[in-house]
Every structure is written in C-alpha cells, then in structure tokens.
Design brief:
100 residues, mainly alpha, flat
Length: 100
C-alpha cells in the first residue's frame, strides 16, 4: 500500500495527504454508514496522534484533529456495531490513551 511506503520513507506530510484523500473519497462514495469511511478516519487519527507524540510543530492542533477524526469514526461504528463492539472500544481506548 502506498501509505506504508510513505511511512518507510518518513514522508509524513504525504502520508497525511493520502489519508485525508481516502477519508474524502469514502465519505463521497458511500453516503450511508460505511465501515471503510470509519476506518479511514481512524487511520488518519492514528497518524495525526503519532505525529503529535513525536513533538512535531503543531502537536496540539494535530491532537485536536485526531480527536475529531476518532469521534467521527466512533459515531459511525457505534451505529453499525453497537457500543460494546471491539471496533468501538478500541477507538475509545485510543482517545483515553492520547492524554498520557
């Protein structure tokens, strides 16, 4: 996958760009509830959180956006799978863990 190549080469801005485009695509392509859209949002949140934890410029902004993406993903997944499903609780754990 192209994203993994960006990670290997440490091209974080390119990775973020691609993840944002994936989110936009899934949102436009699948108008209803979409697990693919939720997981793309989660992946973007993961990347933003990772960048923030490395102390990059704009870390607070990245964490804020990561929280928003996690929240959007969770809203979709809760409706699809229910409150107690691991897809939902995994994201809940990430949102709690980011405060460490």
């Amino acid at each position: 996958q192209l994203c993994s190549k960006y990670v290997e080469k440490r091209l974080v801005q390119d990775q973020l760009r691609l993840l944002r485009r994936r989110c936009e695509f899934h949102k436009a392509a699948y108008k209803g509830l979409s697990g693919a859209h939720a997981w793309a949002l989660e992946a973007l949140g993961d990347c933003l959180r990772s960048v923030a934890k490395k102390g990059a410029v704009g870390a607070e902004d990245n964490l804020k956006v990561a929280r928003q993406k996690y929240s959007e993903a969770n809203n979709i997944l809760r409706l699809m799978f229910g409150e107690d499903h691991e897809y939902v609780t995994d994201i809940d754990d990430k949102m709690v863990g980011e405060e460490d």
